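Hello,

Our lab assistant flagged a job as stuck in the queue for most of the afternoon. It eventually completed. Since we weren't sure the result was trustworthy after the delay, we are filing this so someone can double-check. Below is the sequence as submitted and the structure that was eventually returned. Let us know if re-running is recommended.
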Amino acid sequence: MKTLKILKATSIFIIIAIIVIWLVFSFYLAHKPKESFLQGQIEATQYSISSKVAGRVGEIFVKKGDFIKEGELVYNIVSPELEAKIKQAQAGYKAAQALSEETNKGARIENIESTKDLYEAAKAISNLAEKTYTRIQNLYDSGVVSLQKRDEAYTNYKSAKSNEDAAYQQYKIALSGATKETKEALKQKELAALGTLDEVESYAKDTQAFSPISGEVSNILLHTNELAPSGFPVVLVVDIDNAYLRFSVREDRLERFKIGSEFVGFIPALNKNARFKVRYISLLGEFAVWKAANKDKNYDMKSYEIEASFVEKIDGFRLGMSVLIPQDS
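-- returned structure --
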């Protein structure tokens, strides 16, 4: 009977001891300082591939997830209006060029011969009129003809002489061609037409859109036969090779993250650590403030944005993956 009581008391003591130990352990776990982390995510610069030319999207040569190289053709634009403008500009330039060349060459041989014949005919008439006037003048001096006849002969002579001079000037113009000012004006018109053609052709070159970087196609916003406004991004490319980590930190922990300093972050998706190097620090907006919980620090603390690049290349990472950075106690 006595042994039974001892066993019962021992069992109760053991049960009570187990309960106490469990309570103590639970209390310890509940109040154990938890490891805190700063959380950021992997990002990269995204580039928009667009065209200055408005038109319909022709053929797209890439798809989401493709890795493309710098300078690779991504898509093209079909623009019948631009093709018509090119033809207009080409025709305008050829016309201005032909007119300038014709002016610089001078008049045609036929025109020169024609003005020469007119000049010689006018000269012959002028010579005849001069001889007639001379004879009439002699007769007038002899009193044979009247003053009226002499005046008529003189008038005919002066008119014929004026016609001769005019015909001679036309002949000289035909020989020398256009004036220097006219040639310069036509030359400038030719250059203006060439500039218009170059401008339109430069737009035509932009109907083919090439990738400005080597990267991964992250999205395609328009598809074949859809209308693309001028400058609208059709394909988005992410610069994977220059990915970086971005996170924010309170100013009381900013001392740890100086420009050029390195730290280790854990990437849960890959279950591995990666080393980063701080490259950029910037103050966040006024909305991003932290209220201090410590009574010794009774002021609002600002938050700063930090960007850090990979020290070593990590295989398998994707944009948007979280990175956990242990905080020093």
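-- support follow-up --
The delay was a queue issue, not a problem with the job. The result is valid. The longest strand covers residues 272-283. The first helix runs from residue 2 to 31.
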